[in-house]
Design goal:
Number of helices of chain A: 8
Strand content of chain A: 35-45%
Order of helices and strands of chain B: EHEHEHEHEHHHHH
CATH topology of the largest domain in chain B: Rossmann fold
Largest interface: A-B, 32 and 26 residues
Oligomer: heterodimer
Structural class of chain B: alpha/beta
Number of strands of chain A: 73
Largest sheet of chain B: 5 strands, parallel
Number of domains of chain B: 2
Helix content of chain B: 55-70%
CATH class of the domain at 884-1013 in chain A: Alpha Beta
Number of strands of chain B: 5
CATH superfamily of the domain at 884-1013 in chain A: Histidine kinase-like ATPase, C-terminal domain
Distance between the termini of chain B: 39 Å
Shape of chain A: elongated
Shape of chain B: globular
Radius of gyration of chain A: 60 Å
Strand content of chain B: 5-15%
Strand order of the largest sheet of chain B: 2-1-3-4-5
Chain lengths: 1013, 206
């Protein structure tokens, strides 16, 4: 009994182990993105995709947008009032072009992907927003204390749900969509079904193994097919509730169901093949619900294409069915096997030293694979099972070749191990021993198309040729008198269409050619062939030929060389021509003249007709992209290529691989920068710009999340460019100083190396306005302006003249006013002073007796009076300015009359009855008056006359004659005294008049003549 | 007895004038002021026959004083005391209500004569000035000329032609005193009728 139990236990454990040993599922490979590729932070919280196709990633330190190649990151501004933290917890597109985000610890905010700005909504500030998918779109719930809210698609609160009646107050209520009439609601630690119509709660019964469980339950997944709800508990693992049986199971170890899912289950993702993926803290648990087996996808630090990190946070399936996994240390994209590649890596006990070396097909249609200095394996094409040959010599294999029904292995010294695929029997062949007594290893073996077998071995083994169907051997060795080979052994060969053989080895860059007609060897030195002169090349890794007679050589770090024997010329292809690397490990033609190359940086297909390389790597879905051996085979019947990398054997139809790139991806203009400023709304594609807004920079991108293949662009501005401008992988185009006009900017993209361009759906149309300096209305305006200007100038000129005249008049007025002012200032003070002198003198005179003093005082008094008189005259001339002739004449006459009256001299006058209405200038007035006054004064003083006559006549000029009956004067007297006549002349000169005089003993006559205006 | 009040800011002149007038038997110097503001209420109270008012005084000008108190002293005659005959202010003062003017340089006898003449109803001034004053009044209300007597109109005409008082007297065969009296009447009539407007005009012109 104990034995049975132990056997059963053993078997059980074996089984379990067996399942577990399947756990290391190396079939999943990932492309990982971290801050190195441009992510703002490696801690991924949430992923979504917008309607345009961009992938949005919420991280601990920023929001990121991925288009398949570049990350564009968005952060809260420094003093941003909307966003106060960069810790994004959730991202989801709630309406076209707008994202709803959850920021820790702030709450809900939104982001406009077009203007690239954050903004708040009515529910901003609230946290715990949940989004679930329903049959008709997304449903949004907001958790709140004692209630939950249902939001409409504008993120406004539409309805609220009250907490279940039994539940205590003070806890958040979380709601999830279940069906059109019911919701799944969590209150504290209990789940309920809530009927949205009746608003009733029905509790979901849970049977907990032990108390305290379920307090940290979270709803994770609804399986609609199996009608099961999955709940995860941080400490206790997974619970499943069946809607049919209404029973809750705890899927835990020891449950017997074989599941062991524990740790924090962040998300449950249903996948094809009945798989459920659990995102946990230790990787991704993969549960096949049909076979009930578990495996785990984990991170492996030595493999760069494994899961980025074991602590996984979220998963997202994009529109092209790509799977994205967020972890604490980066974003992992599951490399989808869209290339329809079958691969095997399990079953070969490979490690670093024993990578796959060669592959051949046997007549039994099975595939035979050898490992480097290790075993030969058979891959059964029907069962897909890999089994190793069971034979003692099945070790240290160098190579395999097929001969009829046999598969022959070389590498075990100078023996050959033959396996008959029909009989499954092994035979050791030693017929080479006599020809290779001392060698270590046979390095090459193959069957010529004519049936001959050729062998090469090291240690100077040269070649041994076994003639077909005969036991006859021929040897070719260095130093046999005929031949001298550069290398003592050769590993690689090709037979061309003439039956000639071409050999190469990693030690040498020389190509050895055996002429089948002459049975002679010659060495080709490429540094002497046309096209690769003086080139130093490394060793040869593989050789093949094409139907045109060219020999193709793969170099170990030198690239690919095509040799044309006909004219001894060669062409070398390198990375600049499109090769992914110059370390080429194998060459293999397929049926359609396409040369497949295995390099250390991926698989490359040289499409000779189009002279371009199409390259494949892990990101394209290749299981492994490091090829360092010449493990290659083409099954022409089934059109299958077989390649072996260091760890993986893969087979595929070449058409599948090449056609996989015929995918469509959207092309968008991402940013438009006008004059250095980013256009905030890039969705509008008809823009009217001003004339000076003519420097445009376009950033564009194609969104391709699937392939990782390089995308190249070309663009064209209709209206400015004549043809498309090739931009390679560069994603921007700029135009400066665009002339006014209408333009359309177009962009197109394609996979690098492809023919087929995908054009942008909505090209950008815009118009640059003609600057106002060139438009028609400006022209009219100019004409009008110039006309106006002309009129204005003329008018101004006239006005100016008038102004000048007015100014002159004003000036004259100002002068006269100033005169008055001066006069006023002056005469009052001076007059007052003079009056004081006078009165003081008068009062002094009363008090003194001295006659002489009295006389002096009299002189003072009269002097002062005279001065007052003179000032009085000045006032007269100043105050009245230009005056009428009439006034002047009356004044002159009245002054003369008074003077003569005071002096006691008789006065007679004759003045015209009517005096013409004339204004004479103050100059004339003054000078005339003063002259006459002086004349009168002189008469009183000197003439001793008794009668004075004044005659005034007015005609063209005014004539004033002063005559007296005094004693006269003589000219010398007067001039010597320095007054009188000279003064008259001076005064008359000023006013352009003249003076005449006549004097004798009977009297004097002075005549003044002044022209009138 | 002619009662006189003197308003003159310059001390030598004021005391000199006071001395001079005190010596005359017919004159009684009631008071002397150096400031128009102080003088005005006193003049109203004292109601002198004649006020000799200096034009150029600091503070309130003589013209303004005359204007202000003329109505309160119906029986008082104002005489402008001025330095220059051609001073435009004389005309303003006369338009404001003064009846004559005295030049500060006038000899004492002539001064006494002029004061006596004014007291007797004359207008001692130069014909130039008289012409000007009347000219202002004429501008203001030309039709008032009708209220003047024939003789007054005659004199007015001659005056406007620039004849001296003496000459007018000769031409009309009347004494100079009569001439000045007529001119005085002309003023009075025109004063009463036109003072406000004349003042406006005169001061408006300024």
């Amino acid at each position: 009994m104990r034995n049975i139990i132990s056997v059963i236990t053993f078997l059980f454990l074996l089984f379990a182990n067996g399942w577990y040993s399947n756990a290391q599922n190396a079939n999943y490979s990932f492309t990982n993105y971290t801050t190195v590729q441009g992510l703002p932070n490696n801690n991924i919280a949430s992923i979504c995709q917008d309607s345009r196709g961009f992938l949005w990633i919420a991280t601990l330190e920023g929001l990121s947008r991925f288009d398949g190649k570049n990350f564009k990151n968005f952060y809260a501004g420094k003093n941003d009032s909307v966003v106060s933290s960069n810790t994004f917890g959730m991202v989801h597109e709630y309406k076209k072009g707008h994202l709803v985000l959850d920021i820790v610890p702030v709450g809900v905010i939104c982001f406009n992907t077009n203007t690239e700005t954050f903004y708040k909504t009515t529910i901003s500030g609230r946290r715990d927003i949940r989004i679930t998918k329903s049959s008709h779109g997304d449903i949004y719930f907001l958790a709140a204390c004692n209630k939950a809210y249902i939001l409409n698609n504008k993120l406004e609160i539409k309805d609220s749900i009250a907490k279940p009646p039994n539940e205590p107050m003070g806890y958040n209520l979380y709601a999830y969509y279940f069906s059109d009439s019911s919701l799944l609601i969590k209150s504290r630690s209990t789940f309920y079904f809530y009927n949205t119509k009746t608003k009733n709660y029905a509790e979901i019964p849970v049977d907990f193994d032990s108390p305290g469980q379920g307090s940290n339950w979270t709803f994770r997944y609804l399986d609609p097919v199996g009608q099961q709800l999955y709940f995860a508990d941080y400490y206790n693992g997974l619970y499943r509730y069946s809607l049919k049986t209404h029973k809750t199971e705890h899927l835990n170890r020891g449950d017997g169901s074989g599941l062991c899912v524990k740790s924090n289950i962040m998300q449950i993702v249903p996948r094809e093949n009945n798989e459920l993926w659990f995102l946990t803290n230790h990787g991704i648990d993969v549960w096949n619900t049909r076979t009930n087996t578990m495996s785990v996808i984990q991170s492996n630090t030595s493999k760069s294409n494994s899961l980025a990190y074991n602590i996984t946070t979220c998963a997202f399936t994009d529109k092209s069915n790509g799977i994205w996994i967020g972890t604490y240390k980066g974003l992992s994209k599951l490399n989808a096997n869209t290339l329809k590649i079958k691969s095997w890596s399990d079953g070969f006990s490979t490690n670093q030293d024993n990578s796959l070396m060669s592959v051949v097909e046997g007549s039994d249609e099975n595939i035979y694979v050898s490992l480097y200095f290790s075993k030969v394996y058979q891959l059964n094409s029907t069962t897909n099972k890999i089994t190793a040959w069971q034979h003692p010599l099945n070790n240290s294999t160098w190579n395999l070749f097929a001969r009829g029904d046999e598969i022959i292995k070389i590498g075990s010294g100078n023996s050959l191990l033959s396996y008959n695929t029909k009989t499954n029997k092994f035979t050791v062949l030693d017929y080479l021993k006599p020809y290779y007594p001392d060698i270590d290893i046979i390095t090459l073996g193959f069957v010529h198309s004519n049936g001959d077998e050729w062998y090469s071995a090291n240690k100077g083994g040269g070649f041994v040729r076994k003639l077909a169907n005969r036991n006859c051997f021929k040897t070719y060795k260095t130093g046999d008198g005929v031949n001298r080979f550069a290398s003592s052994y050769y590993c690689y060969y090709t037979e061309d269409d003439h039956g000639d053989l071409w050999f190469g080895v990693n030690k040498s860059s020389l190509l050895l050619h055996w002429n089948s007609k002459t049975d002679r060897f010659e060495e080709i030195n490429f540094s002497r062939t046309k096209g690769t002169e003086n080139r130093l090349l490394p060793g040869i890794n593989d050789i093949t030929h094409d139907t045109a007679g060219n020999i193709w050589v793969a170099f170990d770090g030198g690239g690919l060389l095509k040799y044309t024997p006909g004219n001894n010329s060669s062409v070398l292809y390198s990375v600049t021509d499109g090769l992914p690397a110059t370390h080429i490990s194998f060459l293999q033609f397929d049926k359609k003249n396409r040369l497949w190359l295995g390099t250390i940086n991926g698989l490359s297909c040289f499409i000779i007709n189009e002279n371009r390389f199409e390259n494949f790597k892990n990101e394209n879905g290749l299981p492994d992209d490091y090829f360092d051996s010449y493990c290659r085979y083409f099954d022409a019947k089934k059109n299958l290529l077989w390649f072996g990398s260091s760890t993986t054997l893969m087979s595929f139809n070449p058409e599948d691989l090449l056609n996989s790139n015929k995918q469509k991806f959207p092309v968008y203009i991402d940013e438009i920068i006008i004059n250095g400023k980013r256009l905030s709304d890039t969705l509008q594609n008809h823009l009217a710009l001003k004339a000076d807004e003519n420097n445009l920079l376009f950033h564009f991108t194609a969104i391709d999340l699937t392939n990782g293949k390089e995308i190249e662009y070309s663009y064209k501005m209709e209206g400015a460019d004549k043809s498309w401008i090739y931009n390679s992988t560069n994603q921007s185009a700029s135009y400066a100083n665009i002339k006014p006009g209408t333009y359309i900017f177009k962009v197109r993209a394609r996979y690098k190396g492809e023919n087929h361009w995908i054009e942008i759906k909505e090209p950008f149309e815009f118009k640059i306005a003609t600057p106002w300096s060139r438009s028609w209305w400006f022209f009219l305006l100019m004409v009008g302006l110039s006309g106006f200007l002309g009129w204005f100038i003329i008018r101004t000129y006239y006005l100016r003249r008038l102004e000048k005249q007015a100014a002159i008049i004003e000036k004259q007025q100002a002068i006269s006013e100033e005169r008055s002012r001066i006069a006023a200032d002056m005469h009052d003070d001076m007059g007052a002073g003079l009056s004081r002198i006078r009165y003081l003198s008068a009062s002094m005179k009363n008090e003194i007796q001295d006659e002489k003093l009295k006389h002096n005082l009299d002189t003072l008094i009269s002097s002062s009076d005279n001065l007052v008189d003179k000032m009085n005259d000045i006032i007269w001339t100043l105050n009245t300015g230009d005056e009428s002739l009439e006034e002047v004449i009356y004044y002159i006459r009245s002054q003369c009359s008074e003077m003569l009256d005071n002096a006691g001299v008789g006065f007679e006058y004759v003045i015209p009855e009517t005096i013409p209405d004339l204004i004479i200038s103050s100059e004339i007035k003054r000078n005339l008056y003063l002259a006459i006054k002086e004349a009168t004064h002189n008469v009183i003083k000197h003439a001793h006359a008794t009668q004075v006559n004044l005659l005034i006549q007015i005609g063209q000029q005014i004539t004033i004659r002063v005559s007296d009956n005094g004693k006269g004067f003589n000219t010398e007297e007067l001039t010597s005294k320095g007054n009188g006549l000279v003064n008259y002349q001076k005064r008359m000169a000023v006013i352009k008049g003249k003076v005449q005089y006549h004097s004798d003993k009977a009297g004097t006559e002075i005549c003044f003549e002044v022209p009138l205006p | 007895m002619i009662s006189i009040v003197i308003v003159e800011d310059l001390e030598e002149i004021r005391s000199g004038l006071v001395q001079l007038l005190k010596q005359q038997e017919d004159f009684l110097v009631l008071s002397a002021f150096h400031d128009g503001v102080d003088a005005m209420p006193e003049i109203i109270e004292l109601q002198p026959d004649i006020v000799i008012m200096d034009i150029n005084m600091p503070g309130m000008s003589g013209i303004d004083c005359i204007r202000q108190i003329k109505d309160h002293c119906q029986g008082t005659q104002f005489m402008i005391f001025t330095i220059y005959e051609n001073d435009e202010k004389i005309v303003d003062a006369l338009a404001a209500g003064a009846s004559g003017y005295l030049l500060k340089k006038t000899s004492p006898d002539k001064m006494v004569e002029a004061i006596k003449e004014l007291h007797q109803g004359g207008s001692p001034m130069s014909s130039q000035i008289a012409r000007k004053v009347i000219g202002y009044f004429k501008e203001a209300k030309p039709e008032d000329n009708n209220q003047l007597t024939k003789k007054e109109n005659e004199i007015l005409l001659l005056l406007s032609k620039g004849f001296l008082y003496k000459e007018i007297a000769g031409k009309l065969s009347i004494t100079m005193g009569t001439v000045t009296q007529h001119i005085h009447h002309i003023y009075e009539k025109l004063h009463v009728a036109n003072r406000t407007e004349a003042i406006n005009k005169v001061f408006g012109r300024k």
